[in-house]
Specification:
The chain is α/β, with parallel strands linked by helices and about 350 residues long. The chain has 13 helices and ten strands. It holds the Pfam family adh_short.
């Protein structure tokens, strides 16, 4: 399509002047002004409706130790930087890779804190989770904040973990379940502590398919993802009841729709989505959060003095409790049943 005539007409239009109250005003100035107003308005709309709330807590964490899974990228890395700036000792729990080594260096540099360390873990392998927990317990270090942040999303085809479990259920729920259960003695002994399970808005439509929890018969990628994110919320509710007489607070949260690598499996396995994603990304940018913005709710749960026994065990988004998003929230029978099934899956590694 030849755009030359349209460009010539636009150039002619912009070269014109108009008269307002006797003043000669170039059209190009009016167009520029209108564009600036539209841009500022759009930016304000995005800031108000899509960027979400910010964590305004000024709490320092000197002497506190934080463990974050998946902190070599996205909101996990931004969370690590923020907490390290607050003088915490931060452990990023990720697989060994150049990406992790680079992230470790970046977190130390950005936070000006050398007390940031990497401990290897592969959440697709329960042996690795067990090994991480054993090393950590043997180290004698405390845990004041555990953030189960890592996750994968909506794999188009059914894949399995090293132990043969459906990969989303294994990575998003079972591995964090095992990690938390193994580290609970350390967490409780550390005094005032917090556990944060990063869930998703996808849990709104989630259900727990107890008859086929690994979706062996009829795999539906988004249904599986929604179930795994609901499991994060249900486990948080169970844990809060279990830890009610301790100094440990537990919550789940939705970070928002964030521009991170969470879609990597979805795009890698669905080649036809890549050009589609590339074509709509500029528009999606307007309606999504940066990794820093997406980290705000879990940072709020980690640092705010407003988190207490009364609002613990809840599901949060934009630094606020979200109630009634799924009818299974706080269903103690479902929470108990999920706990028992999860324990059966990982019983070999709990001993």
């Amino acid at each position: 399509m030849d755009l030359t005539p349209y460009l010539d007409n636009a150039k002619t239009f912009l070269a014109q002047d108009i008269i307002i109250d006797g003043r000669v005003i170039p059209v190009k100035y009016l167009v520029a002004t209108a564009g600036a107003i539209m841009g500022l308005t759009a930016g304000k709309v995005q800031q108000t409706f899509f960027n979400g709330a910010r964590n305004n807590s000024k709490t320092l964490l000197k002497g506190k130790t934080v463990v974050i899974t998946g902190a070599n990228d996205g909101i996990g890395k931004e969370t690590a930087i923020d907490l390290a700036k607050r003088q915490a000792t931060v452990i990023i729990a990720c697989r060994e890779s150049k990406k992790t080594a680079d992230a470790l260096a970046e977190i130390r540099r950005a936070s000006n804190n050398s007390n940031v360390f990497h401990e290897a873990i592969d959440l697709a392998d329960l042996d690795s989770v067990k090994a991480f927990a054993t090393r950590y317990i043997d180290s004698g270090r405390p845990i004041h904040i555990l953030i189960n942040n890592a996750g994968i999303m909506a794999l188009p085809t059914r894949r399995e973990s090293k132990q043969g479990y459906e990969l989303q259920f294994a990575t998003n729920h079972l591995s964090h379940f095992l990690l938390t259960e193994l580290l609970l003695p350390v967490i409780k002994k550390s005094g005032s502590a917090r556990i944060i399970n990063v869930s998703s808005r996808a849990m709104y439509r989630g259900r727990v398919n107890f008859a086929d929890i690994e979706f062996k018969r009829d795999y539906k990628n988004w249904e599986v993802y929604s179930q795994s994110k609901l499991c994060n919320v249900l486990y948080s509710g169970y844990l809060q009841r279990k830890l009610n007489d301790t100094d440990v607070l537990v919550n789940a949260c939705h970070p928002g729709v964030v521009r991170t690598s969470l879609t990597r499996y979805l795009l890698d396995e669905s080649w036809y989505l890549k050009p589609l994603a590339a074509s709509v990304y500029p528009a999606l940018y307007f309606f999504t959060k940066s990794a820093t913005q997406g980290a705000q709710t879990q940072l709020y749960l980690a640092t705010s003095d407003a988190i207490n026994r009364a609002n613990s065990g809840e599901y949060w988004a934009d630094c606020k409790v979200q109630k009634g998003k799924n009818k299974l929230q706080h269903d103690e029978d479902v929470e108990d049943r999920l706990y028992e099934i999860s324990k059966q899956f990982v019983s070999k590694w709990l001993n």
